[in-house]
Write a structure and sequence with these properties.
28% of the residues lie in helices and 20% in strands. With 275 residues, the protein is of the alpha+beta class.
């Protein structure tokens, strides 16, 4: 069915006046006027739809191997969901919240986020957020040292997603605040299997999976298209202009990203398992 739900007029002025922190200007530098930027062109998050379709198929294949993948929104605009034990993530609970508009575990935080989003939207502004992805029953030994590491392969796909600013595994940046005695994942033998007591590394050490749950964060910037007036310039006139963006734009694009994060993990795993 052909898409009839579009408003191209909302993008007409953007062909000459680029949006701050959007790809309008860099697209012009690279391609000139040859690129159609309606709807954000190839830089739009809409293009993750086929990616998620492929990821959904990969996820179903992995489920046959008892590999489970789930996700949640960890943080929106500084409001953080409850802490999770990375060594034993609640995969069933994560699956239950996956259909929610705001997929967090803490209902109180969900209300806080909803109120924040309403305020931000009313102000014509936007905020960023973090999507956290979990994989359970991941085989040991996937990935290689250095440039073909498990983290590198996850990051390669992640940075192909518009608005991703950072990727981190396990405790991520919090690790720099800790001592080695706090951050190190000590070993234990449980039912004849080698495990770690904690999972601060997020299931990957030296670029190779260690059999613990894989945990990584995708950090997203605020939606660059906002209705607040901003300074820009006219490409044709080479003069500074004030830009006010019209149209339908998400106050927080991070809310739409859990299926993308799951697809990144599913497609990476399927590729590695088929090597």
């Amino acid at each position: 069915m052909k898409n009839e739900n579009y408003k191209s007029k909302d993008y007409e002025n953007l062909n000459d006046i680029p949006r701050p922190s959007h790809a309008d200007y860099t697209s012009f530098i690279k391609y000139g006027n040859e690129m159609d930027m309606n709807g954000g062109g190839p830089f739009s998050g809409r293009l993750t739809a086929p990616f998620c379709l492929a990821g959904g198929i990969a996820k179903q294949i992995l489920e046959e191997k008892d590999i489970k993948i789930s996700s949640r929104i960890k943080n929106i605009g500084g409001i953080e969901d409850k802490n999770i034990d990375f060594a034993n993530p609640p995969m069933d609970k994560l699956e239950k919240i996956s259909q929610k508009e705001i997929p967090v575990l803490d209902e109180k935080k969900e209300k806080e986020i909803r109120n924040l989003l309403e305020k931000v939207k009313k102000d014509g502004d936007s905020i960023g957020g973090i999507c956290q992805v979990f994989g359970e029953n991941i085989p040991k030994g996937l990935g290689d040292p250095l440039f073909d590491s498990f983290e590198a392969k996850i990051s390669y796909l992640s940075y192909g997603i518009p608005a991703v600013r950072a990727v981190s595994f396990g405790l991520g940046l919090d690790a720099m605040k800790m001592k080695g005695s706090q951050h190190n994942d000590q070993f234990e033998i449980k039912n004849g299997h080698v495990k770690t007591i904690t999972n601060n590394a997020g299931g990957v050490v030296g670029g190779i999976t260690n059999g613990m749950p894989v945990v990584f964060d995708l950090i997203f910037k605020p939606t660059p298209s906002i209705s607040i007036c901003q300074k820009s310039f006219s490409i044709k006139e080479k003069k500074e202009k004030i830009l006010q963006i019209k149209g339908r734009h998400d106050p927080c694009l991070a809310l739409r990203t859990p299926p993308i994060g799951e697809s990144i993990l599913a497609l990476t795993l399927l590729d590695l398992l088929n090597e």
